[in-house]
Amino acid sequence: MACLGVFVAYLPVTSVSVSLTAIQSALSTTTSQLAWVSDAFVLPMAAFILTAGVFGDVHGRRKVFVTGLLFSAAGAATSLTAHSIGQLWTGQALSGLGAAALLPTTLALISHAVPDHRERGKFIGIWAMCLLGALAVGGVLAGTILSHVGWRWIFLVPLPVVLVAVVVSLRCLPESRAPRAGRLDWPGQITAALAITALVYGVIEGGAGSFGDTPVIAALAVSVVSGVLFVVTERRSAHPMLDLALFRSPGFTATTLVAMIMFLGMIGFFFVLSLYFGMVQRLDTLGAAWRLLVITGAALIVSGIAGRVMHRLSPRLMITTGLLMVTAALLTLLGADAGTSFGSLSWRLLLLGLGMGLVTTPMTATAVASVPHPLAGMAAAGNNAFRQVGGALGPAVLGALLTSRAVSSLPGHLADAGVDASLTGQVTAVTRDGGLGAVSSIPLGAEAGQVWGAVSEAFLDGMRVCLIVSAGLTFSAALLAFVLLHPRLGRRRSVSVGGEPGAQVAGGTERRRVGTETPA
Q1: CATH superfamily entry for domain 2-184+239-420+435-510
Q2: Where is the composition biased (Basic and acidic residues) (predicted)?
């Protein structure tokens, strides 16, 4: 059931990602509005994932699991009937709330069922395979659907899966709670949600317009103040939503920072890559999905292998090597252009997927195993929360960089292509207001080929900036993992639970002293 739940949670990610070009064309959206399609899903997931984890520990994980499935179904149904960008955002937000409930609950279910951290690594590997399987299947299903019917029908796919999962959960899944569970930390929840929402809003709107605009400055200020209040609140709370003592564990700190940085770079790059396939290579959705399947398919296979060999290989070695492979793959993609063949792209995308698969399982398993067993659910929720913050910022940050660089270089490419000065001015003005996709809204006449060629070159300029930034982020994550997961650093730290001695961690792996957990 944990595997089915995470499959439902992540199914919308690539299915929506590969459909962005079709959505933009059908709803006539700007680039910033299109970024909010992805962020409307990721943002509530990041903001409420910690609360969902605590709620499951206190009131029962099966209840939260089923609630998450129902929110996912409501979101899919809302998006299925969407005829405006606002309704699509609403549907995505509901699906994001469902994913927020499912992610920590599924890992807590595994932690409850398999208390031995060595044995647990294998099952977290299977969990990670299902997560990546959802990413792989979602894109291909969406591409197949869009080849025959409209983009809205991609949201029909999760509904029967959710129905089956709800029925089986209510009939077969036992209820469980955490020992010594506290109560919901509402001050922490409110300040965390404000900080995350204001930060992502400020970055998206600042990238679309100017970071000097009053609403953007206000949003970023609210984010900083709320973040400080969150830290103060959690330090003083008797039942914190996120126990800051977790960060005494180098394993938890390393994997949490790595997750956030990696997802900022990778989810943001997937957003850019899907636009590259649609706007530059002029592929249909299915063609784009097959190319993304190279990444997710490779990651799926490697993550399963990683889960089985984790007890024999150092998580530090696996995570650092995987991140360096991702960095190398991103740098090799700098040479891609409009005419790059699938064969030339495939080995680069394969390397990217292999690196991702090598990181995903040990990163999650290390975060859970590096703290005492009673804190495993909170550690899983915290790791996922920071991961989703990075995922929410990714499309915002890289979308802003893409638009800024592409729009600034477009006039030069139009001039090089010999486009008439009057049409050049018109195209430039439209793209400054609505992004490169807005070019399709104006008549181009006989110079359409020249204009679209210039747009493609401008997009590639922006994509190369995004690739450099993403590669820099993943390389910095590799350095963090290499330093913080060092065994000697881990042996000097411990984490306590409620004043009791905690787990000794070595290189992010639990050494001894775990509590036990019993079903309610």
Answers
A1: MFS general substrate transporter like domains (1.20.1250.20)
A2: 509-520
